[in-house]
Amino acid sequence: MSLLVVGSVALDTIETPFGKTKEALGGSAMYFSCAASYFTDVSLVAVVGEDFPREHIDLLEKRGIDTGGIITSPGNTFRWKGKYGYDLNDAETIDTQLNVFQHFQPTLNERQKNREFVFLANIDPDLQKSVLQQMLQPKFIASDTMNFWIERKNESLKSLLKNIDTLVINEAEARQFGQEANVFKAARKILSWGPKALIVKRGEYGSLTFHNQAIFSAPAYPLESVFDPTGAGDSFAGGFMGFLAKSGCLDTDNIKQAVVFGSVMASFAVETFSLERLAHLTEDRIYERYRELHNMACFEDLGD
After folding, report:
1. Half-sphere exposure of 23 (CA within 13 A, CB side)
2. Residue 128 to residues 4, 98, 149, 163: CA-CA distances in angstroms?
3. Homologous superfamily in CATH for domain 3-297
4. Nearest 5°: phi and psi at 41?
């Protein structure tokens, strides 16, 4: 089934203990789209500046991603500059230049309004709600957010939750949003505000999924070399939503499988800077890593 993502496109300058890159392709919508494109058709809605390199659009189109929703506005593309220490779970933001992204107003065409699966990447919750108001009959809606919106637009974010199926956030954000030190208590509170499911990303420790009174703990794929964690969460969401859109099934078992595919796509994303690894995979390699992760986490019941 078809999948729509609305989010950011950026040029990232990043330094980690293992290297650095300057003005590389980034942004939530980019990582998400690339990861999801291995499973289903993806339409991307975002804004870039006049300085955005054409080669990046070409990369997306080679993946079969519909780039007709990428609007070029007068000015410069959104830029982010960050630095990671050996604790790759936390980035130090050195500089943020919103540029054309500051005035982004997502407008959907008729084809995009009919998409059945929708992912609202990390943007202002009021903009996320404006996207939903344009949709016709979506089958499944998921969204992301961040600490900035939890602090600045808390009530708007809570209002959004009444109209989505799944919220995907990291563990620190879950604790902050739920105002609970215990992530399970925080999850219970967040779910009481409307979404049918909550996925809590935990970096190298995997994820927790809360759905239909069940809790599913999925491991992350273990890696010896992690170069850049910047797009991990968005790639996770892309794998998750891509698999759900491909299967069209929304029961708990299928959501569990989708979460594991999210972990798989995130593991590829962090192996290089930008989309270098993520954009050049094969379906066989993706499913091979899925099976490897399954074998690592599978254990037998005790029986009677």
Report:
1. 7
2. 12, 17, 12, 10
3. Ribokinase (3.40.1190.20)
4. -75, 135
Instruction: Quote the Cα angle for 199-203-209, to 5°.
Output: 20
Quick one: how far is CA 245 from the chain centroid? 14
**What strands lie across the sheet with 197-201, from one edge to the other?**
66-73, 42-49, 3-6, 117-120, 140-144, 166-170, 197-201, 207-211, 214-218
Cα 98 to Cα 205: distance, rounded to the nearest angstrom: 31
In angstroms, the CA 176 to CA 157 distance is 13
> In the block, which residue shows the tokens 């956030």?
169
SS3 95: strand
Q: What angle do CA 187, 192, 193 make, to 5 degrees?
A: 105
CB 21 within 8 A of CB 12: yes
Q: Tell me the Ramachandran region of residue 99: left when phi exceeds 0, alpha when psi lies from -120 to 50, beta otherwise.
A: left
The interaxial angle of helices 252-269 and 232-247, nearest 10 deg, is: 140
Q: What is the dihedral of CA 148, 187, 252, 155, to 10 degrees?
A: -50
pLDDT one-digit tens code per residue, 10-32: 999 999 998 999 999 999 999 99
- The Cα 206–Cα 204 span in angstroms is 6
Q: Kindly list the domain boundaries of the chain, sorted by start residue.
A: 3-297
Q: How far apart are the first and last CA of the chain?
A: 41
**Cα 254 from Cα 157, distance rounded (Å):** 27
Degrees to nearest 5, angle at CA 165 with 295 and 121: 85
* DSSP symbol at 137: S
Whole-angstrom distance, CA of residue 208 vs CA of residue 216 = 6
Distances in whole angstroms, Cα of residue 52 to Cα of each of 23, 45, 70, 178: 10, 15, 11, 38
pTM value surpassing 0.90? yes
What the block records as the tokens of 126 is 């009021």
pLDDT in tens, 82-113: 999 988 877 889 999 999 999 999 999 999 99
Q: Is residue 143 helix, strand or coil?
A: strand
Strand 42-49 to strand 79-84: parallel, antiparallel, or no bridges (unpaired)?
Answer: unpaired
